[in-house]
Specification:
The complex is a heterodimer of chains A (678) and B (354). Chain A is an alpha+beta fold and 678 residues long. Chain A is built from 20 helices and 32 strands. In chain A, the strands form eight sheets. In chain A, strands 18, 22, 23, 24, 25, 26, 27 and 28 form an eight-stranded mixed sheet that branches. Chain A has a five-stranded mixed sheet with strand order 4-7-10-11-12. In chain A, strands 6-13-5-14 form a four-stranded antiparallel sheet. The longest helix of chain A has 19 residues, at 655-673. Chain B contains 14 helices and ten strands. In chain B, a hairpin with a 2-residue loop joins strand 7 (258-265) and strand 8 (268-277). In chain B, helix 1 packs parallel to helix 4. Chain B starts with a helix and ends with a helix. Classes of the chains: A alpha+beta (678), B alpha+beta (354). The interface between A and B is large, with 92 and 90 residues.
């Protein structure tokens, strides 16, 4: 909303400089976004909050200025003009107004003026309109716009002779009806759109824009001046449907004051008589201006209760009076506040408290630190999520955050897109689907980072995924990890390349589970590319390697990408963070290694499980300490070294005790797995 | 090997020994169980009898000599600093060797920082679903469905879900659910928390929110908010100012100034937009603050009595305040980031700066 310094001065005495006034307005809730000096005046661009239709007018803002500066609003000068204002009521046969539904249009007034002389507006009028960003058209149209800006009441002038009947009908459009609007575009109408029509055709979109056929031109002799109130929701819906926007619709959507319609209409009529030799014939109206005055019973003590400061009752009354409220004092603190028609936003005591606080000044409310009473924590896994994030960053992974919405094409590379939750009103295809998995979004990051020549992309994300089931959308917390490339390690012995592999994602999950107190973590192949990840025998997700086909579509070339996606909700169900101390062993143990060659098809886990059982009870632990494939090893086989750790808690073991156990373990390798000892 | 050659070798090699570790290796090489001297001693039985005692004496002499050399070297080594032996070949200019740590996303870091500020003041953290009902997102917060105030909360709606069995049974695509949306702010958690508990309440809610905005340097269709609210029998606007000032000073620094401007939100009355003095120009006016000297960082106000009515609290008995802020905005200001899209591109060069 634009308003000028001098225009405001028409209605209130201002002694503040434009900048000082702007600061005051901003601190009272009318945020001045910019001030522009123009031809000896200052244009203020003010952001108007949606609850204040009265601020969409010069008079409304002047009222605010008056309240802030303690001056009186002067609108009487306008009203006085209406004394000796001659007109006669139109004969019902001469003109008729027919409102189809009072809900759509509670009040419609039409004033008829004959023998207008359409021409250029005087300089002052043109000038003011142009200052606030409105193009001058001709004197009649300019006057309707001037009153719109001044009073906040949209008006429309029809060329009376171009209406096909002496009747105005306010009705919903018929499906398929068409209207060429003032912007010269033909609009197809629907029954959701409210129109002004003559006997035959729509002539305007109610509250939004007039029709081209009935517009006021140089040749217009007689006009019908419309001043009405339309249902905000209907105007809003129709305007959105047609993709239109106008100063009129902006105000109707926020609600215009029915009690001010007549005043604005008279103001425009008066200006037309002043600026063109128009002959005012009379008026016709249908519907009624609301007269019910809202009263709020107000306890002045609640100002202090809500704000935490005492505002004297005298000051409360002054502020409210300046803002146009009427006050009756019942007793010392009990007031009856009458709400003026231009304040539909004020409905309860809190609304009045805001008015008082605004004008009193938020900055004058001193700060206190309230005592926050202790309360129970909310259920949730926030702490576990943070622990997980810290473990993962400790393992060298970087946290990513990607959009929860995803495009179908990207998702379909990776997952089934049949049973997914979809957005009804996406702006682009990137916002189509509520993702059921995280990994595809991360793959896009891999592709992006590889393009930036990153040698190692190791990222994770923790976010909710959306799983429709049985008519509801379940939100499940997931962890997604992608690894690609190699980590270059410069060690004392020189450069080593740590190339990412499936065992890296496996290791991450094992470490995470272990730090969460979970012992039973297992993996088993499900497809040639993916293995299920199991915790306490329950499947929580997968680890895997992406196929070249998928990678090709993501433009990832000559690289392997390893992924992990698990349900953290399921993982967290198994968490056991209770920690318990195990006494340190008092006696040393003995390490014995076995190196052997065995078929590659035999899993290390299988071998270790067998040795573990065979070594009981002396064998405390077995682990793989080396593996190799190469020239000395036959094809299809690999060399392994396993390290057996023997110990008893109650005494030191002797070589004699270990030897037979270790020998039989080694023999088991040859007998059971066909291994060749080295 | 000839015993004299061995002797020469030992004498020259001991001079190369520069650390106790190397000295131990040297000792093992010559005096160990399988060392060079043991090997020589092992050869003695194979020699002709007349040569045996000679070699035996020579080996013994060498052994004594070697012991003396080692002791001498040992004494020498223990007398010098580490740099002169262990570090003799270390170039301190070489890159250090360490486990590579990953980074938390800057948004996570800001959320944790802000959480900590409020938790220290006694607030608890709550969480809520991202797929919400129209009631929790709008109606419960006093946002009428057909009001222009809805404009500011443009929303992604979710297509009604259809069960396969229903399609087969009826042949039509009858919706199985309706009125679901992606929350456009974290405020629905206010409704949920108040419905599930009685005052006193002091809660903060960080989380993802969604609005159908076209993406540019300052808009995204998904971003993060932190919502906070407090309800008790005597909560005041003055207390709201105090809590938020504490927050701003903790996050942006002690010297920061704050101002409350009246504003409109359907779920608070009175409402305010809150500015801090520009952290770039310290309030003098620069391009970041649009020459105003102030930066808007959050919206706040006293919880509207209609919200209390919706959740079954008596607005005569209780009062409360609520506030909400965009995390990306806070992070951008705090870290000097000029394009909001950077947060979701996940460029490792970006992530590794935080």
């Amino acid at each position: 909303m634009k308003v000028t310094y001098n225009w405001l001065k028409d209605f209130v005495e201002i002694k503040l400089s434009p900048q000082a006034l702007a600061d005051k307005l901003t601190m009272a809730g009318l945020e001045v976004k910019a001030i522009e000096e123009k031809e000896g005046d200052f244009v203020f661009e003010i952001e108007i909050t949606s609850n204040r239709p009265d601020w969409l007018s010069v008079v409304g803002i002047a009222r605010e200025v008056a309240a802030i500066t303690g001056k009186k609003l002067n609108v009487k000068s306008l009203a006085l003009n209406f004394k000796n204002f001659k007109h006669r009521a139109l004969n019902i046969n001469q003109f008729n107004i027919n409102i189809e539904s009072p809900k759509d249009c509670p009040l419609y007034t039409a004033k008829i003026l004959h023998n207008v002389k359409v021409g250029q507006s005087p300089a002052w009028l043109k000038n003011r309109l142009e200052m606030v960003g409105c193009r001058s058209i001709n004197n009649i149209v300019d006057i309707t716009n001037y009153v719109l800006f001044e009073q906040g009441q949209p008006l429309h002038a029809f060329d009376l002779d171009k209406l096909s009947s002496k009747e105005i009908i306010v009705r919903r459009a018929k499906q398929g009806e068409k209207l060429v609007t003032l912007d010269a575009a033909e609009k197809s109408l629907t029954k959701d759109i409210l129109v002004i029509a003559d006997k035959n055709n729509p002539v305007a979109i109610a509250g939004v824009m007039g029709g081209k056929d009935t517009e006021v031109t140089q040749d217009t002799k007689n006009i019908l001046l419309e001043a009405a109130v339309f249902n905000p929701a209907v105007v809003r819906f129709g305007r959105q449907l047609l993709g239109l926007n106008s100063e009129s619709s902006y105000r109707f959507e926020r609600g215009v004051n029915t009690q001010a319609v007549e005043f604005a209409s008279l103001r425009a009529t008066r200006l037309m008589q002043d600026l063109s030799p128009a002959e005012y014939i009379g008026e016709k109206s249908s519907g009624r201006a609301g007269k019910n005055k809202k009263n709020i019973i107000f306890d002045a003590l609640c100002v202090q209760e809500k704000l935490g400061i005492r505002v004297p009752n005298v000051q409360i009354k002054t502020i409210l009076t300046h803002l146009g409220f009427s006050i009756k004092t019942k007793s010392k603190n009990a007031l009856i506040i009458g709400v003026p028609g231009f304040r539909p936003d004020v409905n309860c005591a809190e609304d009045l408290i805001e008015e008082i606080a605004r004008i009193y000044g938020y900055e004058k409310i001193k700060t206190t630190i309230p005592a926050v009473k202790p309360q129970a924590k909310f259920a949730g896994n926030r702490e576990l999520v943070l622990l997980t994030k810290n473990i993962l960053t400790g393992l060298g992974l970087n946290e990513a955050i990607t959009y929860s919405l995803i495009d179908r094409e990207l998702l379909s590379l990776y997952a089934n897109t049949d049973a997914v939750a979809e957005v009804r009103n996406p702006l682009s295809k990137e916002q189509e689907i509520l993702r059921p998995v995280i990994v595809p979004s991360l793959l896009r990051c891999v592709s992006y980072n590889l393009n930036q020549n990153q040698e190692l992309v190791n990222i994770f994300e923790i976010a909710k995924v959306y799983l429709p089931a049985g008519g509801v959308i379940n939100e499940e917390l997931h962890l997604g990890i992608v690894l690609c490339g190699e980590r270059n390690l410069l060690l004392e012995q020189g450069k080593l390349k740590d190339k990412m592999s499936l065992l890296h994602v496996k290791g991450i999950l094992e470490e995470l589970a272990s730090r969460m107190g979970i012992e039973d973590v297992a993996f088993s192949w499900e497809t040639p590319d993916t293995a299920g990840a199991f915790v306490n025998k329950q499947k929580i997700g997968i680890i895997g390697c992406l196929t070249q086909q998928v990678l090709g579509k993501l433009d990832i070339k000559h690289k392997d990408v390893f992924i992990l996606e698990v349900s953290l909700d399921k993982l967290f169900n198994c968490v056991s963070l209770k920690k318990r101390f195990t006494p340190l062993p008092k006696f040393p143990g003995i390490i014995r290694d076995i190196s052997f060659v065995v078929k590659s098809s035999i899993s290390v886990k299988e071998i270790i499980d067998v040795i573990k059982i065979a070594g009981k009870p002396l064998l405390e632990n077995v682990e793989v300490t080396d593996y190799y494939q190469g020239r000395q090893i036959p094809a299809g086989s690999r060399g392994l070294t396993i390290s057996c750790f023997y110990r008893l808690l109650e005494r030191t073991l002797t070589e004699e005790e270990i030897n037979p156990v270790h020998t039989s373990a080694a023999r088991l390798l040859t007998e059971k797995f066909g291994a060749t000892l080295r | 090997m000839d015993i004299n050659t061995l002797k020469t070798q030992i004498e020259s090699e001991i001079l190369q020994v520069n650390s106790t570790e190397e000295l131990e290796a040297f000792r093992a090489k010559y005096l160990g169980r399988k060392g060079a001297l043991a090997e020589l001693t092992g050869m003695i039985p194979q020699l002709p009898v007349e040569q045996r005692s000679g070699l035996g004496q020579q080996v013994n002499a060498l052994k004594n000599n070697l012991q003396a050399l080692i002791t001498e070297r040992q004494n020498k080594l223990s007398g010098v600093s580490a740099q002169q032996n262990v570090l003799v070949n270390c170039d301190i200019g070489m890159p250090g060797i360490a486990q590579d740590l990953g980074r938390l996303h800057p948004i996570t870091q800001i959320i944790e920082e802000i959480n900590a500020v409020f938790v220290n003041m006694g607030f608890v953290v709550a969480d809520g679903p991202e797929v919400e009902t129209e009631f929790n997102n709008f109606t419960g917060l006093n946002i009428p469905l057909d009001h222009p105030s809805r404009d500011a909360f443009d929303t992604f709606y979710i297509k009604p879900l259809v069960r396969n069995s229903e399609i087969q049974a009826t042949g039509d695509r009858r919706p199985a659910t309706g009125g679901l949306l992606l929350r456009s702010h974290t405020s629905p958690v206010q409704v949920r928390a108040m419905k599930s508990r009685k005052p006193p309440l002091a809660v903060i809610v960080p989380g993802r929110v969604y609005r159908p905005d076209a993406v540019d340097a300052s808009h995204l269709f998904m971003f993060h908010q932190i919502e906070g609210f407090m309800v008790d029998t005597n909560v005041t606007f003055s207390g709201l100012k105090g809590i938020l000032e504490t927050f701003a000073k903790e996050v942006f620094g002690e010297e920061i100034k704050m101002r409350f401007r009246p504003h409109f939100f359907p779920f608070t009355e009175p409402s305010a937009e809150v500015d801090i003095s520009c952290i770039i120009c310290k309030g003098k006016g620069c391009s970041v603050c649009g020459r105003k000297g102030w930066l808007e960082i959050l919206g706040a106000g006293m919880i509207h009595p209609n919200v209390f009515k919706q959740v079954g609290y008596d607005p005569k008995k209780y009062s409360g305040f609520a506030f909400g802020m965009g995390i990306e905005r806070i992070a951008m200001l705090k870290y000097g980031i000029n394009d909001i899209r950077l947060f979701f591109e996940n460029d490792l060069r970006f992530l590794k700066q935080f």
